[in-house]
Amino acid sequence: MKLFDAHCHLQDPRIITKAPQLISSAVASGVSAFAVNGVSEKDWNLVKEMGAKYPSVVPCFGIHPWYVAERSPRWFETLKSLFETTPTAAVGEIGLDKGSKGREIDFSEQVTVFRQQLELAKELNKPASVHCVRAFGDLLEILKSVGPFPSGVMLHSYLGSAEMVPEFAKVGAYFSFSGFLMSMSEKKAKKMLKAVPSDRILLETDSPDALPKAELGCLYFVDGDPSLPEKGNSASNEKSNVSSDLMKLPKETLNHPANIHMVLGYVARLLDMKNEELAELSYQNAVRLFSYEGSKMLLERGTGDVSGHNQNH
């Protein structure tokens, strides 16, 4: 069984030093690819380096709405040149946020920066990984005006309504689900999942965030996680042997990328599917989405322009 983590942040300062162990243990558990998303100019080079070092890492560059105010005057030129030198890269993380954190950032600025990056993704025929919090109406309006997106656009950690799914799907959207889905009522989540076309469903971890709600004995933990007690923070490569309730974990507990298995199990249950069936479906969907010109998915199949980036799994 192969899985594709369609959105994560393995370059995050909280886990960057642990990235080699996290990647190797997740790969050993069945995760064969990770779309690693940058969030600001400060981490784009880290993401680029990870993409060069790990065949399983698909690098993605973008400015996340939380970091819009920190962008430099030449941010867009830097971004465009990165895509020129990194053909394996996709666009992300970009988006809109009207949540508690997003409200601190001028929304018109968010829209301007988002549109520029979205238009660039369309121009380059690359998929974009989109963050959206409490701004789904605005997002749909912009996607309709800039789209459609034949190369796809991914709504990461989607928590929108079931009713909006067909509208987003019409412009080429894929819907990716993480542990955050467990914060939605099961009834609402099931209705929304059932509305998603089967060829548009993806799974992700959003690691190191979005720890799934699960029995502790089923979770993978990040070795040395400062939020965990000493004896419980060394389960990087092993599942925890503690059988207890998740509610005892601090909310800042780091999410290991191998916990995509918990997301798989939850989504499969709500969709009345077998884990293996959803794993295969979501994997194929992710491979299709990330098969743009120069991508590692095409190189893996030997059908792309290798141009010195021939990194096979």
UniProtKB/TrEMBL annotation:
InterPro entries: TatD-like. Pfam families: TatD_DNase. One of its GO terms (molecular function) is hydrolase activity, acting on ester bonds. This is TatD family.
